[in-house]
User: Fold these one by one.
Assistant:
Number 1:
Amino acid sequence: MYTFKQDGDRFVVSIDNHQELMGAIAAFCQEQGILAGEVSGIGAVNNATLRFLNPATKHYVDKTFEEQMEISSLVGNISEKDGKVYLHLHANFGRADYTVVG
C-alpha cells in the first residue's frame, strides 16, 4: 500500500500506484499511531473524487474525475474523530490540457 522513511517525528510516505490516496494516508496514520499532524504532498493520480460544500444547502456535492492528473498541491491536517484518524485535505490537480481542478 505504501513505503515510508522516518526522520525524527517526520515521515515521508510514498503511496503505491493505484492505491486510494485518502485510505492509504489514513491507514498509515492509524498504523503509526498518528492522531494529529500536518500533511503535504505532490504526485499523480488516475482519478479523484472532489467534494464541494454547497453553502446554501450545507451539503457536500461530490464530483469524480476519471483521468490521469498531477497533484500540484496537497495540504491538510490529521486529527481524531470518534477514535479514528480523520483527514481534512485540500488539493489541486493538473490536467493534461493544463487546466486545474481542486
Number 2:
Amino acid sequence: DVSGRGVGMDVVKRNIQKMGGHVEIQSKQGTGTTIRILLPLTLAILDGMSVRVADEVFILPLNAVMESLQPREADLHPLAGGERVLEVRGEYLPIVELWKVFNVAGAKT
C-alpha cells in the first residue's frame, strides 16, 4: 500500500537544501526505505549554553541568549493568571519557563 503524495518530504527537502544539505532516499522492495539527511559540518558546530530542566539538559544557541543571571526571589513578581515577571534594573521582564517550552514533566519552578 502506498499513501500520500510526498508533499511533507518535499518541504523537508527544501528546508535542508536551504541549509546547504541534501536528502537521500533508498527503497528496497520487501525491506523498507532508508532516508539519510546530510548537513554541512558547520551546522553541527555552534556556541551554546547548557541549561538543566529537571533531569534534562538542553543547549541554547548563544546568539539567542541576551543575558544570563541568577534572579533573587525578591525580584520575582506574580501577575494575575499565575504568570510572573522578573525585575531587572528597574524593568519588568516576562519569565519564560523552560519546563513548559520543552514539555518537561516533574520540573520545579
Number 3:
Amino acid sequence: MVNTILTIGTVVRLFHLDCDVMIIGRYPIVQKNGQEGYFEYSGCVYPDGFYGKDLFLFNQEDIAYILAYGYCSDKEIELLGEMKVNQHALLDLHRFSIAEWKNMGA
C-alpha cells in the first residue's frame, strides 16, 4: 500500500476497523507475554483522540487507505530521513502483526 513512513497526524482507515484512526506514534516498542517487538504505527480514534485505553497498533499492510496526511515541516522531513537510515536498529526486534498480537492473548 504505502512504502514511506507516514507523518504523525495522518488519518487512515484500517482493514479491520470501521472507524478512522489518526497516527500518533511510529515504531512503538511493545511487550506481550515476555516477548518484545514493535509495530510500525500506533494510533487513536479520529476525531475522538486518545482516552487511555483505545490505542491501536498496526503496520503498513493493515492500512486500507489514507484519508488525510499529517503536517509535514522541514523538521519532519529531516526526522523521516533519519528514521529510514536507522530502521536497521529495529531488525533485532520482532515485528508483530495484528493477528499474531491477538493470538498471544492477554
Number 4:
Amino acid sequence: MRRSLLLLLVLALHCPAQTPRPRPKIGVAFAGGSALGLAHVGVLKWFEQNRIPIDFIAGTSMGGLIGGMYATGSDAAEVEHFIAHIDWNEALQVSVPFRHLSFRRKEDQREYPNTIELGFKRRLRFPSGLSSGQGVSLLISRFAAQYGDLASFNDLPTPFRCVAVDLVNAREVVFDQGSLPEALRATMSLPGVFAPVRKDGMLLIDGGALNNLPVEAVRRMGADVVIAVALDLPKPSADELATLFGVARRSLSVMIIENERRNLGLADLVLMPDLKGITSGDYLRWPELLERGYQAAQQKERMLAQFQLSEQDYRQYREQRAALRRPNDIRPELIQVDGSLAPRRREALINTIATDRNQPIDRQKLEGELTQITGMGRFDSAGYTLFRRDRSEE
C-alpha cells in the first residue's frame, strides 16, 4: 500500500501543472447597408446578454458607425438609446433645416423650393452630394468628439477599423489612426447622397464599393475567430430600375454584393439577419431591425456558446473596456476656430463654447450655432472635435 502511494506521489510531483489555455481573440465585422445596419445593434445586445466578448471590431458605412460607437466603450443599451433618440429626418436631411437658414436664403427657398444649389469658383460647380453631411457629422460628434487625436485606433476601449474608398487613387482606405469622427464621416459618405470627405489629397466615400464587409481588416488586427454580420440587400423593383437614380444605386449594390460574397468565405462564422420586407431607407423601423439582428445571433447560439465567458471573466472584460473610455462631457481649455469666419460670428461661436471650465459644453447650443453657420451659405459643413494638448510642449 505504501509502495503504491509513494509511486502516486512521485508521479504527481513530476507532472507539470496544466496552465489554462488562453481564450481565442474574437473579432466582428459589420457590413454596410444604410438603415439595415441598425440590425447590428441587436447582435451586440445578444452578445452582451450571453457574455460573448468582442476583442476587435470593424465595419463599413452604417456598420462602421455602429461598430465605432461600440468601440468607444458604449454598451449595447447605450447604443440602442442613442439610436432611439436620433431625429433621422434631420440627421439625413439634404439641406440645412429651414429654421437655421439666413433671412436671404429663407427667401430664396420660399421662391425656389425644389432647386439644387450650385457654386461658382472660377467656374460653375455642381454639388458633390445631395447633402453636405452636416447632420451626420454632428451626430458622430455626439459620441466620438473626444477621440479626435488617436495615435492608433487600437487605443480605443475596443480596437477598431473602418473602411472608405479614395476616389482620387481608386483604392480602399482602412482607417486605423487619427480622428475617429473624421473616419466615421468618411465611411458614411454614401456616393451621391453625402459629400465626400477631403483628407490629405484624398476624396473619400463610403467603402462599400470595394469592401462592404471588412473581414480581412479584423483578421489583420489579431483576431483568432472572425464573426461576420452580413446584410442581404433587397432586390430593386422594376419601377426602381426605371429611374436614373435607381439604376445608379443598383450598380453600386452589385459591386457591394460581389465584394461581400468574397469576404463571407473568409469569415469563421456568418450571421445574416432576415431583413425581408425592410428597405435600406427604413430608419424609423429601428426597433424591428434590432430584433432581427438579435434573432440572427440567437439562431447561431450553439456555435457561439463556445466563446461564452464565465460571469467573473466577462465582468473583468467589461471593466477593462470601461477603464479605457474617455469622458464624453467636453470642458475645453483652449478653443480654436478653423475657417474664414467673420469676426462677429467667430466671437459668437466662441462665446457659445466658452463656459466655466468646471461645466461641460452645452452641445445642443453648440450644434445650433454650427448649423446656423452653414445656413449662411458660405460653408458646406461645420463641426467640432476635441484634441488633447501635450503639456510637455507648454
